[in-house]
Write a structure and sequence with these properties.
The chain is α/β, with parallel strands linked by helices. It has a single domain, classed as Rossmann fold (3-Layer(aba) Sandwich), CATH 3.40.50.1820. The protein has eleven helices and eight strands. The radius of gyration is 17 Å and the shape is globular. The two termini are 31 Å apart.
């Protein structure tokens, strides 16, 4: 199914019977880039205001909904290392062999899991505003209360987080305006652009169409050991992080970059969590190796 912006949507039935939904933008014959969306988000996530940019850059941007988000069925008891198995079936369906992977925020664990699992099939890895696994002490900013820091590293059921995220699922289209108020000036500027705000409102709304339980589960997984060593990612990783990112503070990005065997970190002074909307061309050029 295609839309007026060139969005191609589809779904596949996985071997275990679950439905996996996905969307594509760009050149069907271009270089495949697997998008690992944020948390919350969905297959509708994109990093450019003009979706035709993907076609001009020769990129085939493929974004699947993780289990429970958007139109993908939930996967009870899932772990982060289970995600590459779902991706493998999608890639076979789409006829994709080699590909790059790019993550935003909470998608970092899933992009790195794919890199570790697929080996040489992954040509490049990109991480936008990602945090490290909780196996190491996180360098929390001073404003985060001590009890919150302690809770984040304590295993607990996802149900314990659901009340925290429940309000987000009531009117997810307003999340970009909420972020615009609470984030730093650079992010407020980016989110102040109507096209960016519209993109984010749509992907948040679609991602939370099934309620907040899926978001609680996804965040709980990120706060537990990820189930694979980050050091097993042998591909080159480009990491982009704003020094004024108030969602994922830059100190966390520095820890993640230090844990990766082959990483080039790009620090953007004064910029925030959504810097990709101002730097997409150079970011996708790095993934294409051009």
């Amino acid at each position: 199914m295609a839309t007026g912006i060139g969005l191609r949507e589809g779904s596949i039935r996985l071997r275990d019977g679950r439905m996996l939904a996905y969307a594509e933008l760009g050149d069907p014959d271009g270089q495949p880039v697997l998008g690992c969306h944020g948390s919350p988000s969905s297959r509708l996530e994109r990093h450019v205001e003009d979706p035709d940019a993907y076609r001009r850059w020769g990129v085939r941007f493929v974004v699947p909904d993780r289990p429970g988000f958007g139109r993908s069925d939930p996967h009870p008891g899932r772990r982060i290392p289970d995600w590459p198995d779902d991706v493998a079936e999608l890639l076979d369906h789409l006829g994709i062999d080699r590909f790059a992977t790019l993550s935003l925020s909470g998608g970092a664990a899933y992009a790195l899991a794919c890199a570790a699992a697929f080996g040489e099939r992954v040509t490049a890895v990109g991480v936008l505003g990602g945090a490290p696994p909780p196996d190491v002490p996180w360098p929390w900013p001073r404003w985060v209360p001590g009890p919150v820091r302690a809770a984040a590293h304590r295993p607990f059921p996802a149900a314990a987080l659901q009340p925290v995220f429940a309000p987000l699922s009531l009117r997810p289209a307003l999340i970009p305006r909420y972020l615009q108020v609470r984030l730093n000036p650079a992010d407020r500027r980016v989110l102040g652009r109507p096209a960016v705000r519209s993109i984010m409102a749509k992907t948040f709304t679609e991602g939370l169409r099934n309620g907040s339980a899926v978001l609680a589960e996804d965040r709980a997984l990120l706060f537990r050991p990820w189930g694979f060593p980050v050091s097993s990612v042998r591909q080159h990783v480009d990491l982009w992080h704003g020094t004024q990112d108030w969602q994922v503070p830059v100190a966390m990005g520095r820890v993640l970059s230090a844990m990766l065997p082959d990483c080039t970190a790009h620090w953007f002074p004064g910029e925030g969590h959504f810097l990709v909307f101002d730097h997409a061309r150079e970011i996708y050029a790095a993934l294409r190796g051009s």
